[in-house]
């Protein structure tokens, strides 16, 4: 990274903290206020059936709650002896959970649902959400040289979309665009973003899967023209002059679900008290990560070799609200995005109390199911299933989170079926979870265009 650019970037970090602190408004010490909770007494959920746990992570900034839970002694406070297992890919996370090698894991939010409904037909479950937002779309130097610039350089998304669509359609063959896993929000948000620009992800680009830590080197080698990944791998591309950020995905869907704490149904049944202690400790860790004054410490801890194994400055941008879109010129494109990584709560236009980033909204599961059907990821499911609500409740159960939240005096949202207003999506298309079939039928770009979906 250019020294002048690094010094300029570093000088803005403090401003990002100030911005984030203002967004939080206050940081009281109670669990519901998002303050530091490591000094508060642990809640007793009864004898722990399994105190020694192995938790999986992928080296990404949003593995922070699990790492902080271990490093700050939060899991230990709840009687849990946690070993962190750094996994090579989301596929090894899935397999580790299915095989019982991992007790629970940092996982992409669609993994439990696609594992339940896909070929494995395995009862994977989400204990809680770990965060919202957190990813970005990085494009290559080739795209830059063709005249494409970061979204903030344009007067509107439509203007950016016209330029990018013309660029894609002008290629002799579809370019490759990488995502991290088929059931990730990276995949669904990338497809949503492309479709909103009139680019068909099934025809106009080739969507490929590459593990997060391999994204930058694959772009450097010319394997793909773009990718969607969590941090610090977008900022590394910027800092190393390999690519530039086109769009942050909180602008595709503000407040979208991102990672979950995943486990298996059999593990929950065998370890009900342990499951609740694990969720309570992880909520405390999420709260700790969202205190602005803690963010630099969190970045330094997660950047260590056993975890993300990356230079600290790569993760600072998203975690301090001073995000650098980059570019292959001398323009300053550092923008304040304090909610790029949001682990528990920050007051925003799309998040107000009692909403928070950790509650497992059934509506998010319904949205994921619509996208799996939209892109034909579930060949055995031809229509929207009539028992979808029951499926979602099994895969994303609320009972454990709600038990823990009540014990921690955390107010619960009034409705788990949250309507997403048009203004939180980049194409101004709202989502009403009470009518998923109409939502599905409203998309012009989808597999099997012309087919009318209904309830099966």
From TrEMBL:
A Pfam family: NMT1_2
InterPro entries: NrtA/CpmA_ABC-bd_dom
Record's subcellular location: Cell inner membrane
Annotated SUPFAM superfamilies: Periplasmic binding protein-like II
Predominant location: membrane
Superkingdom as given in the UniProt entry: Bacteria
UniProt signal peptide: 1-23
Keyword entries, A-Z: Cell inner membrane, Cell membrane, Ion transport, Membrane, Signal, Transport
Organism: Spirulina subsalsa FACHB-351
Name of the featured protein: ABC transporter substrate-binding protein
The keyword Cell inner membrane belongs to this UniProt entry's keyword annotation: yes
């Amino acid at each position: 990274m250019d020294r002048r650019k690094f010094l300029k970037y570093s000088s803005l970090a403090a401003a990002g903290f100030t911005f984030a602190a203002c967004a939080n408004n206050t940081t009281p010490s109670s669990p519901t206020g998002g303050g530091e909770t490591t000094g508060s007494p642990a809640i007793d959920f009864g004898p722990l059936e399994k105190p020694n746990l192995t938790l999986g992570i992928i080296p990404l900034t949003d593995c922070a709650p699990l790492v902080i839970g271990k490093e700050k002694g939060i899991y230990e406070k709840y009687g849990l002896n946690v070993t962190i297992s750094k996994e090579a890919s989301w596929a090894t996370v899935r397999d580790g959970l299915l095989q019982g090698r991992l007790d629970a894991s940092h996982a992409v939010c669609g993994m439990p649902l696609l594992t339940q409904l896909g070929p494995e037909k395995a009862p994977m479950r989400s204990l809680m959400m770990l965060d919202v937002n957190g990813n970005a779309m990085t494009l290559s130097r080739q795209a830059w040289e063709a005249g494409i610039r970061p979204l903030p350089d344009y007067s509107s998304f439509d203007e950016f979309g016209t330029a990018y669509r013309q660029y894609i359609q002008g290629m002799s063959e579809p370019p490759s665009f990488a995502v991290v896993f088929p059931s990730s929000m990276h995949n669904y948000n990338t497809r949503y973003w492309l479709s909103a620009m009139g680019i068909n992800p099934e025809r106009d680009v080739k969507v490929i899967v590459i593990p997060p830590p391999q994204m930058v080197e694959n772009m450097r080698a010319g394997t793909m023209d773009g990718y969607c990944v969590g941090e610090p791998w977008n900022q590394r591309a910027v800092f190393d002059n390999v690519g530039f950020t086109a769009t942050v995905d909180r602008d595709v869907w503000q407040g979208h679900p991102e990672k979950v704490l995943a486990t298996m149904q059999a593990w929950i049944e065998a370890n009900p008290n342990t499951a609740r202690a694990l969720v309570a400790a992880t909520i405390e860790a999420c709260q700790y990560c969202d205190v602005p004054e803690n963010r630099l410490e969190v970045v330094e801890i997660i950047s260590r070799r056993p975890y993300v194994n990356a230079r600290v400055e790569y993760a600072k941008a998203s975690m301090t609200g001073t995000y650098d879109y980059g570019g292959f010129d001398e323009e300053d494109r550092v923008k304040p995005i304090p909610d790029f990584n949001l682990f528990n709560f920050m007051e925003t236009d799309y998040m107000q109390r009692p909403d928070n980033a950790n509650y497992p909204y059934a509506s998010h599961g319904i949205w994921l199911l619509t996208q799996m059907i939209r892109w034909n990821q579930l060949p055995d499911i031809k229509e929207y299933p009539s028992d979808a609500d029951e499926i979602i409740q099994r895969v994303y159960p609320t009972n454990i989170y709600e038990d823990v939240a009540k014990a921690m005096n955390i107010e619960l949202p009034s409705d788990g079926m949250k309507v997403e207003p048009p203004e939180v999506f980049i194409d101004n298309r709202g989502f009403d979870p009470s009518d998923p079939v109409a939502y599905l039928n409203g998309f012009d770009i989808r597999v099997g265009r012309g087919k009318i979906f209904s309830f099966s």
